[in-house]
Amino acid sequence: MATNEILEGLIKDPDRLKDLADEAKELALQHGALLRIFENPNSSEVITYTPFTLFPSPVPKAKFLQALALQIHYNLLVDRISQDPGFLEEALASTIQADDFTANLFRLYREVQQEGRTKSIVMGLNRSDYMLDQREDGTCSLKQTEINTIAVGGICISGNLPVVHRRILQMLGLLEESQCVPENNCIAGMTRALARAWELYGQQEAVVMFLVEDVQLHKLGQRCIEHQLWRRGIRVIRRKFEEVSSTGHLNGDKKLFVHSFLTYNSCLVQSWDVRLLMERSLAVKCPDISTHLAGTKKVQQELARPGVLERFFPDQPQVVEQIRATFAGLYSLDMGPEGDQTVAMALANPEKFVLKPQREGGGNNVYGEDIVRVLEEVKGDKRRAAYILMDKIRPKTEQNILLKTGQPLKLTSVCYEIGAFGAYVRQGKDMVMNECVGHLLRTKNSEQFEGGITARVSALDNPLLV
Ligand code: ADP
Ligand code: MG
């Protein structure tokens, strides 16, 4: 790549590198690739740029398009799983014995199921993540790391970086390359889905509520979607769990009402109760609890069993094939001979696998010798069913410079993860929207196991399609 030679040159000329990096950071700030600062995450006074790469990463165009094209199938898959109580019951039976968080979700799910469903409008905003696994023959294949049906970050910032990378390439005279950074407008697509669900709900006075946490590092990004909704004449409110807990109630039709500005006692908040209240209501949830469960790592592993994808796409063998081609090896740790075999396999070659609990948001997975330590502790009883085992994907490494607040500029060996954003809306049995609405490229130091922009590991990136 031409950028590799330029990188070598820049590293030898620190003054020029600093100038270019400063220019890049200013461009990022000007174009809205913003993040609140970790030390002061609720401040409206100080902000910084989202960590990002100085150069876009070369990504094979065919693999990139493959990830985007798959997204409408993954949307359907998640949505169909969410409507299949028998599958969810069976798939998660052992996990809820071992993992409290999933057990709580499942308790709520059952409660709402028993009460009878109120919802006819369902929507999903998700992100399916992939890495390019390098085969020994030098080719590579797209492998899914996971699908996120709830922890879906990067929607708002990802669209702001193409212009930054294009400009950097132009400034360096790489005009042809600058045209290989694709457009990315997730906000428009995500907003369209929200607006569609709001229209179908059919009440002019209904609002879109963002349920937010106390720490709001990503508020500025979420604001972009809010603006787009307001511009369509849709009112938006932001409420914390405490506010929903203390003021939220359902009327006789199960419409959800939430007020604000009351005093509340945050110590008394039960977020599970809030979740149940919302779930029982007529409000369109994103995600609803069954879609949340469909995105668990245990479900991902169960989908890899022979015949399971066929259950969700009975007449579409080509779709089954396309989805299955993106599965890395996934193994159950349930009690029994199959799980025993998984344990033995992991203990024999821990460096070949990733051990995953049912958590989201980065920093929870287990690698290398830690796999041995954890499995030795839990392998004899049902606690091991809280985890799944997955083949470790071996992505190709590249050279780049990661721009992160306060960190020195240095040439780093990096690898990337491609995310495809999905948005869908269903009314009753009719899918009224099903789209891939954009992408996210995240790049990390290849020596780091885990990724994640919020976890301060990954940097926002763009594909340079080759
Ligand atoms: P989380 O829900 O915490 O985001 P992920 O499954 O996405 O969990 O894993 C977090 C990160 O760990 C990913 O972004 C990726 O960098 C790395 N990772 C996950 N699965 C694998 C795998 N099978 N092989 C290599 N790296 C992986
Ligand atoms: Mg993830």
From TrEMBL:
Ranges of residues in domain Glutathione synthase substrate-binding: 206-294
Residues that bind ATP: 146, 297, 356-365, 367, 390-393, 417, 444
Cofactor dependence: Mg(2+)
Pathway: Sulfur metabolism; glutathione biosynthesis; glutathione from L-cysteine and L-glutamate: step 2/2
Stored Gene3D superfamilies: 3.30.1490.50, 3.30.1490.80, ATP-grasp fold, B domain (3.30.470.20), Glutathione synthase, substrate-binding domain superfamily, eukaryotic (3.40.50.1760), Glutathione Synthetase, Chain A, domain 3 (1.10.1080.10)
Molecular-function annotations in GO: ATP binding; glutathione binding; glutathione synthase activity; magnesium ion binding
Cofactor note: Binds 1 Mg(2+) ion per subunit.
Domain of life: Eukaryota
Catalysed reaction, written as an equation: gamma-L-glutamyl-L-cysteine + glycine + ATP = glutathione + ADP + phosphate + H(+)
Entry binding sites for Mg(2+): E146, N148, E360
GO CC annotations, alphabetized: cytosol
Segment forming the signal sequence: none
Residues holding substrate: R127, Q222, R442, E450
Keywords of this entry: ATP-binding, Glutathione biosynthesis, Ligase, Magnesium, Metal-binding, Nucleotide-binding
EC numbers: 6.3.2.3
Protein family membership: Belongs to the eukaryotic GSH synthase family.
Self-association and partners: Homodimer.
Name assigned to this protein: Glutathione synthetase
Gene source species: Myripristis murdjan
Gene: LOC115361966
